[in-house]
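User
New here, help please:
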Amino acid sequence: MQNMYGNPMGIKNQVFTPDDDNDDDDYENTNPCDPKPALPSRTNRRMNKAIKDDLPLKCMNEPAKQPPSVWTTPQKGMIPKETPRFQPPAIGLDFSSGAVNAAFSDTTARNTFPELEAMPHHNKQRPGRSKMVVLTGLMVIIFLALAGVTAFISLRYIAVAEKVVDLEETVSDLQKNAKSEQGNVKAEVADLNNTMVKLQDMIVVNIKQIKEIKKTLENICTRCPVGWYMNGSSCYYVSMEKVSWDEARDECYKMNSVLVMVKDKTESEALKKLFKENGRYWIGLRRDPKEVHIWKWLDGEQVTFTNWGVNEPNYYSNVEHCGETISGPWNDRSCADKINYICKKIRTC
C-alpha cells in the first residue's frame, strides 16, 4: 500500500540510513503503530495520554504498546549529531498517519474527553469554593449585624425625635405662658406706677394741708398753762419741789404730760434757757430692767442721741438706774434720790 506520495505504507521497521538526505517522506513513511516521535509542542501529559489511548484505534491488529522500533531506538552511530528539525511536506499532510493525527488531536481530545478538563478544574476549584462559602457566611453575618445596628439606631432616633418634639411643644407652651404672664406683669407694673404717682400727689397735697393747719394752730394757740414755758409747739414745766424719779413721773402724768425726753440736739439746746446754774433735773431716761447697760426712754424707745457728761454713766455702786440732766449734760443716778424734774406736753388751745 502506498501513500499519496507513492511511498509504501505499513512497513513496520524502516531503517534510517545516513545516506537518505531527503527528509520530505521520512515523516509520512513512519509506522503509525510505533510510538510517536517527540514533538516540541506536545507537553501536556493529559493530551499525551489521550493520544496513546487513541493509537490502538489506528492499529486494530497490533497491540497498544510496541517494542521500540528502529526509528524510535536507532543504533549507535547511525543518528546524526544534530537531529534535523521537522519540516512539513511541500504539498500537504497525510492525515492517515498516526503522528499527524496525534499532532492535530489537541482540539479533538479536548472536545472528546471534556471530563479530563473538568475533573482537574473541579479539584482545583474546591478550596476556592470553600473560601467563597466562608466569605459568603461572613458577609451574611456582617450584613445581619449591620442591619441590627441600623435598626437599633433607627429606633433610638425615632424615640429621641419624639422626645424632642414633646420638648419643643412644652417649650412653645412655656414661651406662650411666659409672654402672657409678662404682659400681665407689665400691665400690673403700669397700674402700680400710676397708683404711686397718684399717692405721691396726694401726699404732697396732704403735707401742704398739714403745714397750713400747723400754722393756723400756732396762730390760734399762743399760750401754755400758767407756770409752763413755751418752746415752739411744746410746753415745759420745771418743778420747784424735789422728788424721786418715780414720783416725778407720776406728777407729770397728773398734769397730762411726761418727763421730758431729749431725743435730738435741737431740743437739748432749747432746754438750756430753762436750767438754773448747776441745776439737777430728772428726765424720762432709765436703764432697761433686763439689761442694765441699755438705756431707754419712757415710751420704750432705745436711746440713740446721747449727751452724757465726762466718764458717764459710771453705774456707781450698781444703784444708778435713772437719768438726770445737770444743766445740759446727762448723768446716771439712784432713782431714790430727790431732785427737781421737768415735764413736757404739746401745746393745746
